[in-house]
Request: fold
Amino acid sequence: MIFTLLPEIEILLSGTWQKQVDGPTPSRFILKYELEYHPVPWGHSLVNGQAFPVPARVFTFNRVGDIRSALPSTNLLSSEFLYFQTGADDGNILKQALEKIPAVFPGDDDLLSLWQRIRAQYQKRDPGEGNIRAAALLMEFLFSAAENPWEMPVCPLPSRHQQSLFAAIRFMQQHLSENCPVEEIARQTGYSPSHFNTLFKSLTGRTPHAYYRALKLRKAKVMLLNGEKTVTQIASSLGFASASEFTRLFHRESGFTPRQFRAQHESGMPIYE
Reply:
């Protein structure tokens, strides 16, 4: 008898968010799998260069390596979200299913029931049974969506350029404690520094240097809320020249100083990296 190990899946964060916008949102690389439910119309989701309408009561799904932005029809974007990552996957069973899930698909009664149960289990914050049950329900949800009975379009795969740039972003993530020059980051793609700069900005709207700094600041938010390091220690661990430089850049990006940001949020509040 042949036994197949179940694929590994981990929910990273689930919740509800709202954001005021005054036009299209900046393009960004998807770093973890993103699943969202939109109870009200959104406008369009632009993924890998293709626009998908997002009416009310639909789910959107984005894969690691996709480039996504929003073309909103409203000034207030809101959704329920769930971020997850995968691990061991014997026979690529889960990977193949994820590649079949539509970019946008209806929130029918069965999927909505599963969605609510997933979120309820995960939000128990039980490191044992709650998370295991939530992950099992998410697996059922994903395989059900992959069957695609609605015959909705699947998002185009990331281009060769996107895949190369995503390798550079992975490199940035692995070297947040350093200050790697753009030339070293460009080597991860095989492109010349000038071509890498031009291509990166055309796809993300940011220079590689600005994107690298944004990753550091995002990591800083996690460290501020989920640890006891001082602002000076965090600045040093993320390769900033000084605590004052870190504070200035953090304030420019978030509107808060690091200390204000820490004080405004509950201690230990999870932040998605």
Q: What stands out?
A: Strands lie at 9-20, 28-29, 33-38, 43-47, 50-54, 58-62, 67-72, 76-86, 104-106. The two ends are 41 Å apart (CA to CA). The longest strand covers residues 9-20.
